[in-house]
Design goal:
heterodimer, A: mainly alpha, two-stranded antiparallel sheet, 20 helices, 72% helix, elongated, B: 45% helix, disordered N terminus, disordered C terminus
């Protein structure tokens, strides 16, 4: 009975109960039980639609467990546990509660079997997660949070619009494979695309994630975008345009990440690039490709969280994640450095690390379907990943130019969370069978072939060598304090400029028109004044005496003429 | 690469950090070692039968050359891109966190920075 309660209730009830516990280590520890309960539940519940409630004319399915939702539900619970452990020392009740509710909303969305429940949880992830950005507590974080909220809620509005249209057309609210066929499915597609950080819809990610707290970014990195991946895999598998969208996503963030100074922003670009791989997998849509997307999402959540954790620890201890201000931290934060390198090796897909056993499924699927160009782009993107996440993140933080900073090693709970996450990254890399067993489709795949291992080492080590050559020769771009503008310039600056120049134009035109009209009216007034004014011919007044003389003269003339005429 | 010997007062250098310090000081040796391993991997192409999806994968040295060339190209293109899009850190003013100095560093009450050294 207990196991059929939708997981969102575990999280809501858990949030309420933990608030009753006095704020301190007991509450922080009790919160860890919530995702553990979620994991226990998932491992014990049979697949199927569990909780259905009637709402108006529709049946809402709150707890649909199948192979796809199981994988994402499981990793979301694991991520929630690791994030809460990492944030164990945080005593800010807002962050505590919102972390739990945000994770719960994302898990609720994964298990939603219909679009209306999906919409509710979709918006709930936005409304809860924004508090993790505001938690930074600065003016900049407030504005960043507002931008984030507008975009996230906008995504929900599109989802709702698409759902309503779909209901009027088909009468069905089921959250199933829809395909991109009409306006309704297009609206839903764009809603998913915003949360998935599609190209040109992506800037909220690089804007908001680096603005959160040291612990908040770890939480944020796990859920929203992977929920979008899940939603796309559910509703649009095999939609070919996703292959090309994914290709753009894999490539362009690589260049931005390479020159970005804020290392948590580098990781946000890197996240964007990793989503590209998953989106390509969904676009290809074969069982192998979809397995690859699910496996890559699973592995990615762990190593991306690990990388954000290591940067969070650095932020926690030094107050910054700007590469220009960091360097040489290996001396006093060696454990954090090791965990960071594990995350870096995992995302770069070194053999024996998790990225190797997940990304290769998608690459093989692309090759099997004859997507040669896509396959090459994936290989280029993989070198790019090594560049920004594999080398730049650990090198410029822990080695590189010595910043002189000698911070203390991270707190024990951060270290423990990073240790567990690292263990999972390495464990999956060495022994991927348990992950492969829970993927949506039955597919035989062995990543550890001689060719695959050797070629992967070749491409990675030679790229590493290229870095050494560029760095030692001084060609590698130096880390400098600067921001790089991206597409969000359009709405943060460009539109504002257009609007202000438009308003300036309107202002000028208005004043010129009024000045012209004023001129006309003025000249009319002036000419009236000339003719009818005090000095004008018709308007001038004269003194009474001379007026009398004039009148007398006129009368005299009248008298003379009337006499002479008679 | 310069290396100013740090004073790690609180717990002293462990064997591990001493080893890393050695690598930092002798980074040239490390790079040469990396080059040697990479060269051996390149020659590894002769030792087994490659099974690629595409014909070009089976060319000798395809992957090593690809890795090296793409890496250099990515970095050089990114440098060009920086010229176009670089702005001062306070470009977006107080509507973004870019120019904020960062969050206060936390050492659990025990200060042990030995300070200074900003780039």
């Amino acid at each position: 009975m207990l196991e059929t309660i939708p997981p969102i209730f575990w999280y809501i009830i858990g949030a309420v109960i933990t608030l009753i516990i006095p704020n301190g280590r007991f509450r922080a520890t009790a919160m860890l039980l919530i995702p553990l309960a979620g994991i226990w539940q998932l491992l014990n519940i049979p697949h199927g639609d569990h909780i259905q409630i009637d709402f108006l004319d529709y049946t809402l399915t709150l707890f649909r467990v199948d192979k796809l939702s199981f994988v994402f539900g499981l990793i979301f619970n694991i991520a929630a546990f690791l994030s809460l452990l990492y944030a164990w020392h945080v005593r800010d009740p807002i962050q505590q509660v919102m972390t739990v509710l945000y994770a719960g909303a994302a898990i609720g969305a994964v298990f939603a079997g219909d679009l209306i429940s999906l919409f509710i949880f979709w918006e709930a992830t936005a409304l809860t997660s924004v508090f993790l950005i505001w938690a930074r507590g600065t003016e900049g974080a407030y504005h960043t949070g507002m931008r984030y909220l507008i975009i996230q809620v906008g995504s929900g509005v599109l989802l709702l619009a698409g759902t309503l249209l779909l209901v009027t057309q088909t009468g069905s609210i089921a959250f199933i494979d829809r395909g991109l066929v009409d306006l309704a499915t297009l609206l839903i597609f764009i809603a998913f695309g915003i949360k998935c950080a599609f190209p040109l819809l992506h800037n909220w990610l690089q804007d908001a994630y680096p603005a959160s707290t040291a612990t908040g970014t770890v939480v944020l990195s796990a859920f929203t975008t992977k929920l979008a991946i899940y939603a796309l895999a559910r509703a649009y598998p095999g939609t070919e345009i996703l292959v090309y969208i994914g290709c753009v996503m894999m490539i362009f963030p690589v260049f931005f990440a390479a020159i970005e100074n804020n290392l948590r922003k580098v990781l946000a670009y890197s996240l964007n690039n990793q989503l590209g791989f998953m989106v390509v997998g969904i676009g290809i849509g074969t069982p192998l490709a979809l397995n690859g997307t699910a496996a890559h999402a699973f592995a990615h959540i762990l190593y991306k969280a690990l990388l954000f954790m290591s940067m969070g620890a650095v932020l926690h201890r030094t107050g910054t994640t700007k590469a220009s201000e960091l360097g040489g931290l290996y001396r006093t934060m060696p454990l954090t450095m090791i965990f960071c390198v594990v995350g870096a090796a995992s995302i770069s897909a070194f053999p024996l690390f998790s990225g190797f056993i997940s990304k290769s499924l998608i690459q093989s699927a692309a090759a099997n379907e004859g997507y040669m160009v896509v396959w090459v782009i994936m290989l280029i993107a993989s070198v790019g990943v090594l560049e920004h996440s594999g080398i730049k993140i650990p090198f410029f933080t822990f080695f590189g130019h010595d910043s002189g900073k000698r911070p203390k090693e991270a707190p024990w709970n951060m270290l423990l969370a990073m240790f567990l996450t690292s263990s999972l990254c390495i464990g999956l890399g060495i022994y991927p069978a348990p992950l492969y067993a829970i993927l949506p489709f039955e597919v035989e795949y062995d990543p550890y072939t001689t060719t695959h291992v050797v070629t992967q080492f070749q491409v990675l080590l030679f790229a590493l060598l290229a870095f050494c050559v560029l760095y030692r020769s001084g060609v590698y771009p130096v880390e400098i304090r600067a921001v790089n503008i991206d597409f969000d310039w359009i709405y943060r600056r460009g539109l504002r400029r257009i609007i202000s120049s438009l308003s300036r134009g309107i202002d000028t035109a208005y004043s010129q028109v009024t000045a012209g009209l004023n001129g006309i009216v003025g000249s009319i007034i002036a000419s009236s004044r000339r003719h009818f004014g005090p000095i004008g011919l018709f308007g001038s007044t004269t003194r009474v005496g001379s007026a009398v003389a004039w009148i007398s003269a006129l009368l005299l003339i009248a008298l003379v003429t009337s006499y002479s005429g008679s | 690469m310069t290396h100013n010997h740090p004073s790690t007062e609180q717990d002293g250098d462990t064997t591990f950090t001493r080893l890393l310090s050695w690598c930092v000081v002798n980074s040239k040796t490390v790079v040469i070692a990396l080059a040697a391993v990479s060269g051996a991997l390149l020659l590894g192409d002769f030792l087994y039968e490659k099974h690629g999806h595409f014909a070009f994968e089976e060319w000798f040295g395809f992957y090593p050359v690809f890795g090296f060339v793409v890496y250099v190209t990515v970095v050089m293109l990114a440098k060009k891109l920086r010229g176009l899009i670089k702005r001062p850190e306070d470009y977006y003013g107080d509507t973004s966190v870019d120019a904020e100095d960062g969050l206060p560093a936390t050492d659990d009450g025990k200060q042990n920075h030995d300070g200074g050294g900003h780039a």
